[in-house]
Write the structure tokens for this entry.
Amino acid sequence: MSDFVFDRATAITDGAGDIHDGWDIGGNANGGYLMALAARGLRDLAGRPDPISLTAHYLSPGRPGPVQVEANVVKEGRRFTTVAGRLGRDATTILQLVGTFGDLSQPLGSYEHLESGPPELPPFEQCVLRDRHQGQVAVPLMDQLDVRIHPDHTGWMEGRRRGVAEIAGWFGFADGRPVDTLALLMVCDAFPPAVFHLDMPPGWVPTLELTVHVRAVPAPGPVKCVFRSHFVQGGFFNEDGEVWDSVGTLVAQSRQLGLTPLA
Amino acid sequence: MSDFVFDRATAITDGAGDIHDGWDIGGNANGGYLMALAARGLRDLAGRPDPISLTAHYLSPGRPGPVQVEANVVKEGRRFTTVAGRLGRDATTILQLVGTFGDLSQPLGSYEHLESGPPELPPFEQCVLRDRHQGQVAVPLMDQLDVRIHPDHTGWMEGRRRGVAEIAGWFGFADGRPVDTLALLMVCDAFPPAVFHLDMPPGWVPTLELTVHVRAVPAPGPVKCVFRSHFVQGGFFNEDGEVWDSVGTLVAQSRQLGLTPLA
């Protein structure tokens, strides 16, 4: 058993595990943590090391306590294995998921075309440590992480809105656990919502659905992240994420569909 | 029974339907058509009119002939119903899906923030009709559609590459069928891949996964579309789509994870 907290908190044995205390925002487990927990079970089933594309629909809040990952292999191909199933507590489905796993240790192709690069960030130490007491609700999750926000992107903490829904910063674990392809699932939901920079009515912005594409195995060190919401309309918003490793490789892309606070 | 071809070609009765001939690219049914076909079955089950977020993993090619939609309701909530299942032919899974359906006839929120608008396009008539004979492979699908490509985005047809993976244009049905929220699923995969504008080695670019967020019910008329691939790397690429209706409302966003041609 690993000594790292994230590994203990995402342990799944024969489809059974626990939502651990301390990975929550105001009592509800973080969506990225829940996705990683479910993915541990799906990955065991798939028998391939890396989540390539994983989608979760968020159906019930995750409170601490026992959970089950119930899933099945839909197709085992030459390069990929697709699984589908759920993270639940008895009859209650918390997450419904479909995902394809593979092996990213070797690139599957050599052609490269990147229209942009990693976000411009001050060095890790010059960014602002996100702690559990910023914002309106306590975020115990932040005790587990070492998330550093771009100093220009912290105005929402004091109610100053930039008017542009973008938040960038660094992600690492507080106990130094390496960021691997499983952890990238958590990274993609570990930042304050980019819409906090808007003059939207305040409130809880639940995730309806999150899809993460893991694009490469990260090199050692904290990762650079940027999240942007381009379109808030009709009660919904997108939040698109990019995660880049210490050598400038794109390691994950994410998109979630969120709900604006109910009027 | 509707007189429109798309409605006949996506008919599902008690979970049974057919992949119709004529919706293919070189013999394989278009991915957006397959998603719409599956969604007809899922929508019946959900009992709500609009796909809000739908994800499909593409596991086997779709050849003409009988198929089954096998799915179940995961959660029926106050505003949304989530379903999960597959489009298959006997033991072969063609698409594995998870989706949430709802009712977009009334907006769920009034706050709006759009960081950009619809793509700049010449009028419908001044764009280039996509027909089945452009490109390297016959595309019978195009007989069903009235897809008009931005005149600056057609160079790939003659092997002239722009070097920017972006393609924009108009979408309508050849027989004038209105573009509703079901059809938007098809719209999001109806354009030539944006990566055709790159100097990538030519070949089939299979879709591993496609997620569509339907954001609003389209106003009457053809819709404006733009698809962009920002990151081609390690054998994978993203293709992000936006679909806007005739009154300038964002009606869908999509992202797919594609595979570059095998070397």
Notes: The mean pLDDT of chain B is 95. Residues 5-104+122-259 of chain B form a domain with the Porin fold (CATH 2.40.160.210). Chain B touches chain A through 64 residues (CB under 8 Å).
